[in-house]
Design a protein that fits this description.
two-stranded antiparallel sheet; about 300 residues; five-stranded mixed β-sheet; alpha/beta
Length: about 300
């Protein structure tokens, strides 16, 4: 045995590492790997056999090769590390590929668009709230102001025939615009009816304009509520709206017109005609109790 080992050593010295390998493989003699690797000047690490030359898992030294897991290289562990990491689907730290960079930019752009959209929507909502509050709190723009000539109207009556506002130019007129579907109309019509019964003998003309859509329903409503002053019918305010403007917030409006057709007072809200102070503009246009009606000016 010693002779064989000595022959192997001489073969190593004479033929080199490659020759020693071929000689060892042919002879299939066990050689201590540390010994011949040390003599060849190589590393002390035992390398496994290459595929195809030796059975899988068998080292060139003749001993089984233990299963070892090779750590993945991230590009900084030596030559070719970057190429291996790219083939493995990973990328060296601190570096991003074109797809990752595109996704990052797209996410940033999406966040920016969402932020701008949120700001725009919030601004629009705030503007709508402010404009709505201003509209509700601001007084309505009057188409007919005190001192203006009252526009003439010609409308059909609720019962029959037609009537014109100009036919009452010689008398003081209280023109009331209402809709029987509004909740406050019933109470207000009763106040207007009392004013009519109180001052009709002194020459006051109370003229109503109903904005209801159904004429038959309007006729039954007026009959059931004992309304005796004349009422004209203008469904939806198609005639009176462009001339006087339609009431707002479902509240009747009233116009006090002096003899001659000049507007004295405009009430955009219901008036309690039993109040002496609120009725005073009408009383100025009427003659004293027992006197003659006021003449047209």
């Amino acid at each position: 045995m010693a002779v064989v080992a000595a022959g192997v050593h001489r073969s190593l010295d004479r033929r080199g590492v490659g020759g020693a390998r071929r000689f060892r493989d042919r002879q299939r003699v066990h050689v201590d790997p540390k010994d011949w690797l040390r003599r060849a000047g190589r590393s002390r690490r035992v390398r496994c056999a290459a595929p195809g030359r030796f059975p899988r898992g068998t080292p060139r030294s003749g001993r089984p090769c233990a299963a070892r897991s090779r750590p993945a290289r991230d590009g900084g562990g030596g030559r070719g590390g970057g190429r291996r990491s790219r083939r493995a689907g990973t990328r060296p730290p601190g570096r991003a590929g074109p797809r990752q960079e595109f996704n990052r930019l797209r996410s940033v752009q999406s966040l920016a668009v969402r932020a701008v959209g949120t700001v725009v929507v919030a601004g629009l909502v705030t503007a709508a709230v402010v404009l709505g509050f201003w509209y509700l709190r601001s007084p309505r723009r009057l188409l007919v102001k005190p001192g203006d000539a009252a526009p003439d109207l010609e409308l059909p009556g609720v019962v029959d025939g037609k009537a014109r506002l100009g036919d009452y130019r010689g008398s003081p007129v209280v023109l009331v615009l209402f809709d029987t579907r509004w909740p406050i109309t019933e109470r207000y019509l009763w106040s207007v009816e009392r004013l009519h019964r109180r001052a009709v003998a002194r020459g006051l003309v109370v003229l109503g304009v109903a904005l209801d859509e159904d004429r038959a329903t309007l006729r039954r409503y007026l009959r059931s509520h004992a309304v005796t002053f004349p009422v004209l019918w203008d469904p939806g305010g198609k005639t009176v709206g462009p001339a006087y403007g339609l009431p707002r917030d479902a509240k009747p409006s009233s116009y006090v017109i002096a003899p001659g057709g000049r507007v004295e007072v405009v009430y955009l809200d219901p008036v309690e005609w039993s109040n002496d102070e609120l009725r005073e503009p009408v009383e100025r246009l009427l003659p004293p109790v027992g006197g003659k009606p006021a003449a047209a000016r």
